[in-house]
Amino acid sequence: MSEHRTPQIRYGGDYNPEQWPREVWEADYAAFDEAAIDTLTLNVFSWATLQPDADTYDFTQLDEIVERAVAGGRDVVLATSTGALPPWLAHAHPEVCRTDFQGRRHVYGQRHNACPSSPVYRRLSAELAGRVAERYAGTPGLVAWHVGNEYGGFDGGCWCDLCGAGFRDWLRERYGTLDRLNEAWNATFWSHTFTDFEQVVPPNMLSEHWRGPDHTAFQGITLDYRRFMSEAMLANYRDEKERIREHDATTPVTTNFMGMFRPIDYHRWAADLDVASWDNYPPGQREHARMALAHDLMRGLKDGAPFWVMEQTPTITASRDVNPVKRPGVLRLWSWQAVAHGADAVLYFQMRQSKGACEKYHGAVLDHAGRTDTRSFREVAALGAELRDLGDAVLGARTPARVAVLFDWDSWWAAEMTDGFNRHARYVDTVLGYYRALWNAGAQLDVVPVTADLTGYDVVVAPMLHLLRGDVVARLEEVAARGGTVLSSFWAGRVDEDSNAYLMDAPGPLGPLFGIRVEETDSAEPGVVHPVHLTGPDGDLTAGAGLVFEVLVPEGAEVVGTYGAEFYAGTPAVTRHTFGDGEAWYVATGLDDAGLAHVVRRVLDRHGLVGPYADADDVELAVRATDGRRFAFVLNHATEVREVAAHASGTDLLSGRRVEAGETLRLEPTDVVVLQED
């Protein structure tokens, strides 16, 4: 391949040539040429090779690997290799191994296995990152540094004495005084008043938890420990990035996130990443809305800037109980969906299947035999050709969104560990329900933190905004006051930043915005469905609802949906409140997809934001724009043919054919159109 390629959506992925003899490398590179692979991620898990003991560093093999990549004209994402400890380090310093949620100190094994508070781990991982950066900074084609790997690991953290000490230091900095700490944790309950910071221990199965991580005697303690652990791992990342910057001031530094991953608050990490990246492994085969949500969440980390898909599988994911193969066309469809939502890189794990250990059957560009005549390789190569031919057309393009969905780790953590509600109601499931309704309606949207600037949005959707912090209430009120619409759900506005209940009617400080108060909150077992009667200008609908049923008392709000069962039959389930020049909608129950679609369409209709393909099931429209050009991605996720009227005139960049507004687009299953609009 030429060293001076036309810029394009990056294509390639994790390559581990250290696992095979040199003659295999040459066959691999020939296959990479055939598949238009332009980017390789190297050195992700090589610590034991790079540093065989405490005093020795050996870069001989990595030199050869990097030199071959450069000679092959590939761009390189170079990892620091600190995502897994070498055995000698755990043997010499057992305290480096994590202590799990049950309080058991682990011995050496697996990966992501280091205590983030260990001084030894922090020193040696930073030193390795610095030595890698010193040696390879300035390498031709070096396009990014990849720190660690999938931070979080088993149990999502560590509960050892070192972490306990780190937690106490974190608390001293956060609260300053014991009085403030005890107030935040409501420590007079169950005689928990602390008289010395040294009395605080990590909340786990040996202390505040009795049935698992979501059952805690003190939500404030556990919430703070989750915040601390997320920041402790961020400190590890910062350690390595700082050492990289001593030798390379400009090459982007990143690490691979995992989408909606509960243990780490990615919003609090975002400022430290030069580009957001994540690993896309959906839990099922019909997860197009969920993937879109995760893509948008990753794009929202950097204020709408493009992100990278650092990993996806060409065929199967090997870590599940059941591991189905991607059906024909699905790899292409899902890859273009990522690009449609803002990805400027679509990379794989892995380039060649490992011959042993737990990922030997994980999907790869090349199988164990290295064949290039398989269906999966042909699909990889065909996609590579499409990306190459597209060139730099959409690079850097952003999503012109007028709808925002708020996603908040604090609300996620706090809501799911609170006793007294319904533990079957889950934060991500709730957010996904609202997102899916917006996705089906064709809304172009951003997924942003509760701290985001909301001034550019006509509609702001905040499902299960359980915990309120900062000035989020004032900013939501401003959206409605200037003519926008705010939509929220049950459990909103229940607790403050310390997870203490507001001493007022729910939804707490959000009450004036929504014009309601919550008198009672009922729950039901999964499978119990109550009818909800919804009214609207286009007709009425009886939807189903489950899990949560808040009994509302309107205080200025208009009733647009009522319960049809239980002692609260006939009382409000969905309300709309005029606030300033706009509206605030409140959904007090777990509406089914039909009910959410009804509500969301009404909200979007008010602002003219329903998409042109909203009535074509599973046809997705996603837009990117740059320099006055708009690119409309039309993707058919249905298992049947869809025929739609083209929403605009332009040229399909994949087929080269001209499309006129209003003409019929026939979309076969998994079809993709990339329309550069006139």
TrEMBL record:
All copies of domain Glycoside hydrolase family 42 N-terminal, residue ranges: 14-389
Catalytic activities: Hydrolysis of terminal non-reducing beta-D-galactose residues in beta-D-galactosides
Alphabetized UniProt keyword annotations: Glycosidase, Hydrolase, Metal-binding, Zinc
BP GO terms, sorted: galactose metabolic process
UniProt KW Transferase keyword: no
Domain Beta-galactosidase trimerisation: start-end pairs: 401-609
One GO MF term attached to the UniProt entry: beta-galactosidase activity
InterPro entries recorded: Beta_galactosidase_C (IPR013739), Beta_galactosidase_Trimer (IPR013738), Class_I_gatase-like (IPR029062), GH (IPR017853), Glyco_hydro_42 (IPR003476), Glyco_hydro_42_N (IPR013529), Glyco_hydro_b (IPR013780)
Binding annotation for Zn(2+): C115, C158, C160, C163
EC number: 3.2.1.23
Residues holding substrate: R111, N149
Positions of the Beta-galactosidase C-terminal domain: 618-677
Broad EC category: hydrolase
GO cellular component terms attached to this protein's record: beta-galactosidase complex
One Pfam family matching this protein: Glyco_hydro_42M
Active site: E150, E311
Domain of life: Bacteria
Family designation: Belongs to the glycosyl hydrolase 42 family.
Protein name: Beta-galactosidase
Native species: Isoptericola dokdonensis DS-3
Gene it is expressed from: bgaP
